[in-house]
Description:
The chain is an alpha/beta fold. It has one domain (about 5-170): Rossmann fold (3-Layer(aba) Sandwich), CATH 3.40.50. The protein is built from 4 helices and 10 strands; from the N terminus they run E-E-H-E-H-E-H-E-E-H-E-E-E-E. It has a 7-stranded mixed sheet, with helices on both faces. It has a 3-stranded antiparallel sheet with strand order 2-10-9, with helices on one face. The radius of gyration is 15 Å and the shape is globular.
Amino acid sequence: MPITTTTDFDAEALYRTLLEQVRAGLAGVPDAAIVGIHSGGAWLAQRLAADLDLTNRLGSIDVSFYRDDYAKKGLHPDVKPTHIGFNVDRANIVLVDDVLYTGRTTRAAINVLFDYGRPARIMLAALADRAGRELPVAADFVGVHAELAPGQSLSLQRGEDGALSLTVEDDAEEPHA
């Protein structure tokens, strides 16, 4: 997949690309489930689950307490509950995040999942892979590979109508992981 360097992203088109990849990747896979990482990944997971008829196998997790920088950054003011209403043991889970960057959020999310059981497999889906990995993490399904300038990050928003938008922002703080 080519690397995109534009600052204009059609998040809905990227979602459709991601949906088709996940649909193909889950064809014939038993005990499939989808778990989104709050908040952008949870939004994407909700849509994927609805489009793939997996709403009864949908979960969401917050990795705030599992981050390796928790002691440094403290508690995020918008901590969400983790909800996994299905048996994780032997499930084939698609873990969904909006932006894959350093891999640290993914590592934390995997730790959360293993607190709930031992999945047969965890596949990673990301709307955008922006490179900059610090851990050996790679997405199985990706909407776009994006190259950003230093000091920039990607931000996913969801409108009241559920429409997604993905924008490039200049970072005032540390980049999104």
